[in-house]
Design brief:
This protein is of the alpha/beta class. Helices cover 43% and strands 17% of the residues.
């Protein structure tokens, strides 16, 4: 296929583009800065620009739409312009270009209402009840994408959960930065059971959804490794991969939630992204999130190839290689 991938400068987007290119697809990537992925055509642009999106989509058989504003603070308008209006631009361009397939990369948070998710499936996206601007805007974007599914365009929504791997700047890097500074803490005892997804597994699941779009269109699928672990274990293994000690600090959830409200508000007033804590983050760290993957794997014909042990081994190797060498005498 001739495939356009939006948002390929991020960890997951670049991995999707690489998987497609390595298997022989004709791949173009569309984002504001270069992706760094070999053997792809770079098409610089912004999804908020409908003309640029239309030009990029023209001539492609399929689109994988990953470009999004991913943050936990900021004004609603900044999320809506990228995650809603940008998605609408992609949908319009796909229809005008007569591309046959569209995979919208979403998030499990579009159906999360603040309660534990235990063996959950893929419930409908619910903007009214989703938590925070990012989740609400992605929920609206998913509903727009699935509403565009018809006989001309096969649309599938894929929701990878807690994606991580070497080079990750959104999960791994902040944890290690706080661990190095001695400020890494667990909410309560870190006993909440959560799923996560190694990045190449998530990328291959997205490609599987693209390949099977004609058969599974109009549906959404949550993707994970299917190996739920406690927050404490996951954070400890990330620290161990970098040769750092496990976190010893503990913060009770009620205190973390109140502090999250204050910090999140302050960061919003200051116009800064990614505060160290928000109420949403406190909820996520104190609440179980794991999913029943049996139907997803059967329908997509996909199984994660990298288990958690192998993933952490790869992360450790990457971090060792990324460290500067000690000067020799």
């Amino acid at each position: 296929m001739k495939v356009l991938v939006t948002g390929a400068s991020g960890l997951l987007g670049s991995s999707v583009a690489r998987v497609l290119a390595e298997r022989g697809d004709d791949v173009s990537v569309f984002q504001r800065r270069p992706s760094g992925v070999p053997s792809v055509a770079e098409l610089p642009g912004d999804v908020t620009d409908p003309d640029a999106v239309a030009a990029a989509v023209t001539g492609h058989d399929a689109v994988v739409h990953l470009a999004a504003r991913v943050a936990v603070t900021g004004p609603w308008s900044s999320f809506a312009s990228v995650n809603i209006d940008g998605t609408r631009n992609v949908i319009d361009a796909v229809r005008a270009a007569r591309a046959a397939r569209l995979v919208y990369v979403s998030s499990p948070s579009v159906a999360h209402h603040g309660r534990a998710l235990v063996g959950a499936g893929s419930d409908p996206a619910d903007p009214a009840r989703a938590r925070g601007h990012y989740s609400r805007s992605k929920a609206v974007g998913e509903l727009l994408a699935l509403a565009a599914d018809d006989a001309r365009v096969a649309v599938v929504a894929v929701r990878p959960h807690l994606v991580w791997g070497p080079g990750d700047t959104r999960l791994i890097a902040p944890i290690l930065k706080r661990a190095q500074a001695g400020r890494l803490a667990l909410i309560d005892h870190g006993a909440a059971l959560v799923d996560s997804t190694y990045v190449t597994n998530a990328a291959e699941a997205i490609v599987a959804a693209l390949d099977r779009a004609d058969a599974v269109h109009g549906r959404s699928f949550v993707i994970s490794n299917g190996q739920p672990r406690t927050i404490a274990e996951l954070v400890t293994r990330i620290c161990q991969a970098a040769g750092l000690p496990a976190p010893r600090l503990r913060v009770p959830y009620p205190l973390a939630a109140v502090a999250g409200d204050l910090v999140g508000t302050l960061w919003t007033v200051l116009g800064r992204d990614d505060p160290p804590l928000t109420r949403f983050l406190a909820e996520q760290l104190a609440t179980a999130h794991w999913f029943d993957q049996r139907q997803t794997r059967e329908v997509l014909g996909w199984t994660p190839r990298v288990d958690l042990d192998e993933g952490f081994s790869r992360l450790a190797a990457h971090l060792r290689g990324a460290r500067p060498r000690e000067p020799r005498c």
